[in-house]
Design brief:
The structure is a homodimer. In chain A, 23% of the residues lie in helices and 30% in strands. By secondary structure, the first copy, chain A, is an alpha+beta fold. The longest helix of chain A has 13 residues.
């Protein structure tokens, strides 16, 4: 059965996240699956590279699905886009290797968190940034980020307390860019736990405020205790930017 | 009485344009004036650099107003921003020369029209671009634009048929930039008539489609006949980018 790879963009504001849920139509996966099923008259299992939380955006989420009916990928893309609402768009559909799996084959993911310096965010970006309204010391945030890079047990940064699987992940790099009116934090890693990026940002913001020391990062990691890490940042500032494959 | 200069950003989607109107609260000028009046307990006459049509956006609209009460401009800005909806923001308030007039002293204005190549616009920019879904010949659009630059009677490009004042304007330059997924048209001039930029873009799009010759531009200008020019483009693609003063 042909295997298709799909690249999807969405504004998460109105959705309860990527993952399909019972009793709601407001998930990205659910919306896409329903349109693919209507198109193919088959039952479709759309597998994303990973879940995104409610309110989180994606510039290039990747998913795959098997479909018996073989169709022109450009026509499939046009069909799906026609039935999707304005805040979800398919950027690409292509035939993939039979064994391609959007989640299992993902080599790295990049997330970006945008902090707007000021109380009132830029009108045009207001749905994609979190306004902080206070000065942050970006230098010490960068130093703290160095302690977070690498392979660690990130249990302290996991929003799911009942997580049974491994909480070890590798953060390849954290880049913190300061531009005129924003601070942008980019996380690239082999995978991220539930809420992990937003808790990492919350912790770094507390460093930027001077409420925490740079060196505390190691203690937090070692504690494996969610209580020790910083606050969960709001979803609106977070965007899944890229998923890379082998 | 102190004279203040204000720089304002707005997403025009939900508004009936800049200019205050009776029987509606949905104008940018009206919203701002009401907040300034509540703050100062004075009657305020907020003068913009010019009107923008319903649905048109602004990155940096400029306005001025006189206010008896003298206040800290940073506090004034914070007060107004607090009461404004999310889609309007004051970027700056500053004391201006007594004789400063946002409309009469404007030396040039720059508008940008964004055309998205494709049927389904980028999710994050969907409110600010117009999706065209067909190929345009940007080279001939650039050639045609050269004929439109300069000082001309732009009556053929004026949306207001009952316009009694002069319809002579100077377009200093038209830049057409083609990037990966968009064509951006930037118009800089000493002033623009009602709907003028959107009709200019509509005419250039018809050139890009091959429906009009480049040389026709001169005939259209000389005709002074709205019927000869192209279609009015949708407001959502248009943004007032900058107003310059002497």
């Amino acid at each position: 059965m042909p295997n298709y790879k799909m690249i999807i963009q969405y504004e998460g504001t109105k959705y309860k996240g990527w993952q399909e849920q019972k009793n709601t139509d407001a998930t990205i996966q659910g919306r896409l699956q329903r349109i693919l099923e209507r198109m193919s008259k088959e039952e479709i299992d759309l597998q994303g590279s990973g879940r995104t939380d409610a309110g989180v955006h994606a510039r290039a989420q990747v998913a795959h699905f098997h479909m018996r009916a073989f169709g022109d990928t450009e026509k499939m893309k046009a069909y799906v886009n026609e039935y999707l609402p304005e805040d979800i768009a398919v950027l690409k559909v292509e035939l993939a290797d039979d064994r391609f799996h959007a989640r299992l084959n993902a080599k790295s993911k990049t997330y970006e968190y945008r902090i707007f310096k000021g109380d009132k965010p830029d009108v045009f970006d207001r749905r994609y940034v979190f306004p902080i309204g206070e000065k942050l010391d970006v230098g010490s945030m960068r130093q703290a980020a160095k302690y977070l890079e690498g392979t660690h047990d990130f249990k302290a940064f996991c929003g799911n307390r009942r997580m049974k699987k491994s909480t070890v992940r590798t953060i390849v790099k954290i880049e913190i860019e300061e531009i005129e009116r924003e601070i942008r934090l980019r996380f690239t890693g082999n995978g991220f736990l539930q809420n992990m990026v937003r808790i990492l940002v919350g912790t770094l913001v507390e460093v930027g405020r001077g409420e925490r020391n740079v060196e505390e990062m190691t203690e937090i990691i070692e504690s494996r205790d969610r209580q020790r890490a910083g606050a969960l940042m709001p979803a609106k500032g977070l965007t899944l930017m890229e998923v890379k494959y082998r």
